[in-house]
Structure formats: structure tokens, C-alpha cells
Design brief:
Blueprint: E1 5-6, E2 18-23, H1 30-43, E3 47-51, E4 65-70, H2 72-82, E5 89-93, H3 108-116, E6 120-134, E7 137-144, E8 147-151, E9 159-165, E10 168-175, E11 177-181, H4 189-192, E12 204-210, E13 220-223, E14 228-232, E15 240-243, E16 246-250, E17 255-271, H5 276-283, H6 294-297
Parallel strand pairs: 2-3, 2-4, 4-5
Antiparallel strand pairs: 1-6, 6-7, 6-17, 8-11, 8-15, 9-10, 9-14, 11-12, 12-13, 14-17, 15-16
Length: about 300
């Protein structure tokens, strides 16, 4: 177990948890699933509060676990809602793909049994702070989980984005924009843009240019311990800063977008049945549809070896 994976210290074998269930009313069957989940948790002796609208300052210090019903978008909204008071999350997939909302509805009962028995771990993930500086003043500050993006926008001509690392100019990107992704976000917009998959418990940022005009501009991965600044000298009228899929501000000439590691860590619950490579294998259909070769490699034995 690495340094980013841990057991819940207050509850090594939690018999009574204070649970908040959240979900979006835009997700089909979320109300019925929330009622089923609440009944399941209460029957096991847990205290449950259901919140369909994410308002206020997120969870209080009395919450042990947040169950998110929906897809990865629901989890991103929940992470923003919790802000700097992050609480461990169990994601239940009511959507389609679901890298973060990893548990199926029919797996939830077993998941709670595993948690009650202490057979789980908490895996911390990098979050970032994004700050937009204009004329020397901060006009927007936000915490995020997946990525910060600078997109060229209409009239869709090439823009230039200068990347500074700890105050030093690293390079200037010319193209349709730039994605600065966390490892959690590496399977989102970054992956669609041709960026690499980076193991989600690694502390690093991934810089993936969008349709770079210079062929030597390729994805770069660097430490999350550094501070990064994106300088946009001449944006298009439609150029914007986007955080986790949400436009947070239009850009004007001279804007600087600062990205750095946040003090808060997003925390997911994993059980014995759910691990990193299982998620990638199932969600991305690794293996091309061919039968799994896992039995051949089990415990180092070759096919045909005697037990």
C-alpha cells in the first residue's frame, strides 16, 4: 500500500457511519436509487442524510462518507461542492462510462459489507487550484479535480500560450489550446486529445496541447510540486479558461492563469474487488474484445502447469 492509499483512521472497521448521499436530479432514477441506498444504509445502522441540491459550503466535520449517485460529472460537482473539506467518496455509476463513479448498483451491498468489515482503502488524488490574474488582480479562484484548459474559441484561429514553470519560461504553445490535467483527469479530456493515461495516485500535471501548430509540441508530464502559469498574449474573442468542463471566464490580452497543487486531496474508496487496472480494463475494453489471458499468468504459472 503506497503513501496515497490508507485506511480511514477514525474507523478501521466502521460499524456506524455518518453518510451523505448526493445525486443530480438530471440523472434518471436517481431519487429511487437514493431511497434504496438510504434504506440499505439505515438497515446496517448508519446515519444517512440525502442532499439532491449541492448548496452551501459542502460537508461538515461530522460526515464520514459521501455516496455519489450518477456519473463522473456528478462526482466532479461533488468535489467542487466539498471544496477544501474533502470527505471520502463512494461513486455509484448511474451513467455510462464512469471512471470515478466505479461501482455498479448491484455491487453496492457488497461494497458496504466490505467497508463495515474494514476491507477497504482510501486512495488520495491530486486536486489543483486555478487562479486567473488580470491587470495584477485575482478575478477568479477555484479548486478543481480533472483539468484546467485554455481553449482558442471563435473565430478558431491559432492562439499562443506561454507556459512558465516556477517563473521560468518553458515553451510557447501555438494551436487550439492547452490542457493541464491531473492524473485523475488523464482519462477525460486529456485522453480524448491524445494525451497519456497517468496512474491516478501520482502527483503530477500533464500538459497536452490541442492541435499544436508545431510538431515538436507534445505532451509533457511534470511534478505537481511546481507552480505553473499560462500567459495568453493575444486571445481570440471566444477564448476561455475552462475548469472541469465548465467555462469560468473569457480571456483578454495579458491574462495569466496560474495552476498549482491544492492542499485538499480528493479521496475515493476502493474495496478488494475494485482496483485501478480493473477499472481501466473494463472501462476502456483493454484486450480488444479477446478472452482474458489472466488465467495464463495467475501466480506465475503457465497454462497446463499442475497445481
Amino acid at each position: 500500500m503506497n503513501s496515497s492509499a490508507r485506511l480511514l483512521p477514525q474507523h478501521p472497521a466502521p460499524e456506524h457511519l455518518r453518510v451523505v448521499i448526493v445525486g443530480s436530479s438530471n440523472v434518471a432514477n436517481v431519487d429511487a436509487e437514493a431511497a434504496r441506498m438510504e434504506s440499505l444504509l439505515v438497515s446496517r445502522g448508519h446515519s444517512v442524510f440525502t442532499q439532491s441540491v449541492l448548496q452551501g459550503d459542502g460537508c461538515d466535520g461530522e460526515t464520514d462518507l459521501v455516496v455519489v449517485l450518477g456519473g463522473d460529472g456528478s462526482i466532479l460537482r461533488t468535489a467542487r461542492w466539498m471544496g477544501y473539506q474533502q470527505v471520502p467518496v463512494l461513486g455509484v455509476n448511474l451513467g455510462r462510462l464512469g471512471f470515478l463513479a466505479d461501482f455498479r448498483r448491484d455491487e453496492v451491498t457488497d461494497a458496504f459489507d466490505e467497508i463495515a468489515a474494514g476491507r477497504f482503502r482510501l486512495v488520495d488524488h491530486l486536486m489543483f487550484e486555478c487562479e486567473l490574474i488580470r491587470d495584477g488582480k485575482s478575478i477568479h479562484h477555484q479548486i478543481g479535480l480533472n483539468e484546467t484548459s485554455i481553449v482558442a474559441g471563435s473565430p478558431f484561429s491559432v492562439i499562443e500560450i506561454g507556459l512558465h514553470v516556477d517563473g521560468e519560461l518553458a515553451t510557447t504553445y501555438r494551436g487550439d489550446g492547452l490542457i493541464v490535467s491531473t492524473p485523475v483527469g488523464s482519462t477525460a479530456y486529456n485522453l480524448s486529445a491524445g494525451g497519456p493515461i497517468v496512474r491516478k495516485d501520482i502527483d503530477a500535471f500533464i500538459f497536452t496541447p490541442l492541435n499544436p501548430h508545431t510538431l515538436t509540441n507534445r505532451t509533457v508530464i511534470d511534478s505537481a510540486a511546481r507552480e505553473y502559469e499560462l500567459f495568453v498574449s493575444h486571445p481570440n474573442p471566444g477564448s476561455a479558461c475552462v475548469i472541469d468542463g465548465q467555462v469560468v471566464a473569457s480571456l483578454v490580452a495579458g491574462d495569466r492563469v496560474q495552476v498549482r497543487r491544492a492542499a485538499a486531496r480528493f479521496t475515493l474508496i476502493e474495496t478488494r474487488q475494485h482496483g485501478y487496472y480493473r477499472t481501466l480494463r473494463e472501462k476502456l475494453a483493454w484486450g480488444g474484445g479477446f478472452p482474458s489471458i489472466a488465467p495464463i499468468m495467475t501466480f506465475g504459472k503457465k497454462s497446463g502447469d499442475k497445481a
